[in-house]
Design goal:
Blueprint: E1 2-6, H1 11-22, E2 26-31, E3 48-51, H2 57-64, E4 69-72, H3 79-84, H4 87-107, E5 110-116, H5 140-159, E6 163-168, E7 170-172, H6 181-190, E8 195-198, E9 204-209, H7 210-223, E10 229-232, E11 235-238, H8 239-250, E12 257-260, H9 275-279, H10 288-301, H11 303-310, H12 314-326
Parallel strand pairs: 1-2, 1-4, 2-3, 4-5, 5-6, 6-10, 7-9, 8-12
Antiparallel strand pairs: 9-11
The chain binds 2'deoxy-thymidine-5'-diphospho-alpha-D-glucose.
2'deoxy-thymidine-5'-diphospho-alpha-D-glucose binds near residues 78, 117, 169, 239 and 263.
């Protein structure tokens, strides 16, 4: 199959690219190479790489030529950055899917739109979100992702486009940009730097290994139905539990954990009901404890990969995000 993977130089996208190349697909990657896109993630893989923006119709039609499907990972994804400045999120996460949908409408190709559990907003203990639940996004990031999801569903209904949506939990694994909780804490812990715990640290997230997430998206590409949404759940843990495990696995000093000012609008809890995806045959293979240990080992062994990221634009972001909190 010839498939276009947008955002294929990013974290989940590059894992997906590796997976599709392994089954013999002809993979074209379209990636804007923003701060989180990283060509090192595709090194030596032999895919057809095109630098470009999903919000640019010309770049999309050129890259998508001859493709039977597009899987859209391209997105601005970090909640904290969306709180600092939301404009890029609207362009990439709202206007970008519109451009891809227009291309799918013209070409008749299939679209898998990769979204997030954050579109449901936070939910009470003892409940899980189902695909039919109302969307109540809390941050500029999740609101922009919800806008993308709704356009996909509207294009299916109005134009009969062959598109479907996945909504994944917090994903972790190798090659994740160190702005996100797990790689941030692992790399800071390895360097003896403070570990900023937002608020009381009692928020709960579901953790999904990137290989299990990629397998779910692949299944939806082949077996999912147009106009359907599929939740991809992980294992639920309290943030402090994850943070303490990282301290233990890295051998860091527990006093590096520092409670700091909370994220504005911070969602307390996400939890997904994935029974629809399980009915298609999806079963996660990686336990969180094992996956986390392997992830810590990957960051320990690949210092050059993350040091390069942490020395660039990241420094200015880190100061803006954490300097006041940690002072
Ligand atoms: O749930 C899926 C979503 O997971 C994805 O759609 C997003 O793209 C991805 O960024 C992630 O969103 P979160 O906001 O949950 O992830 P993050 O790694 O930023 O934070 C995880 C939790 O850890 C959250 O409760 C905030 C907390 N946290 C995060 C950072 C970066 C801290 O306490 N301190 C921190 O420095």
């Amino acid at each position: 199959m010839r498939v276009l993977v947008t955002g294929g130089a990013g974290f989940i996208g590059s894992h997906f690219v590796r997976r599709r190349l392994a089954v013999g697909d002809d993979v074209v990657v379209l990636d804007k190479l923003t701060y989180s896109g990283n060509l090192a993630n595709l090194e030596g893989l032999g895919c057809d790489f095109r630098e470009g923006d999903i919000a640019d119709a010309g770049a999309v039609s050129e890259a998508a030529e001859g493709c039977e499907a597009v899987v859209n990972f391209a997105a601005e994804t970090h909640v904290d950055r969306s709180i600092l400045e939301a404009g890029d999120f609207i362009r990439t996460d709202v206007y970008g899917p519109h451009v891809l949908l227009e291309w799918a409408r013209r070409s008749g190709a299939r679209l898998v739109h990769v979204s997030t559990d954050e579109v449901y907003g936070d939910i009470p203990e003892g409940t899980t979100s189902r695909e039919t639940d109302a969307l109540r996004p809390s941050s500029p990031y999740s609101a922009s992702k919800a806008g993308g999801d709704l356009q996909v569903l509207a294009y299916v209904r109005t134009y009969g486009v062959d598109a479907r949506v996945t909504r994944g939990a917090n994903t972790y694994g190798s090659h994740q940009h160190p702005e996100k909780l797990i790689p941030l804490f692992v790399t800071n812990a390895l360097d003896g730097q403070p570990l900023p715990v937002y608020g009381d640290g009692r928020q709960r997230r579901e953790w999904l290994h990137v290989a299990d997430h990629s397998a779910a998206i692949e299944l939806v590409l082949h077996e999912g139905a147009a106009g359907e949404v599929y939740n991809v759940a992980g294992e639920e843990r309290e943030n402090l539990d994850v943070m303490r495990r990282i301290v233990e696995a890295t051998g860091a000093d527990p006093s590096l954990l520092r409670h700091v000012a909370d994220r504005p609008g911070h969602d307390r809890r996400y939890a997904l009901d994935s029974s629809k995806l399980r009915q298609l045959g999806w079963r996660p293979e990686q336990s969180f404890e094992q996956g986390l240990e392997q992830t810590v080992e990957w960051y320990r062994a690949n210092r050059a990969w993350w040091e390069r990221i942490k020395s660039g634009e990241y420094r200015a972001y880190y100061a803006r995000q954490y300097a006041d909190r940690l002072s």
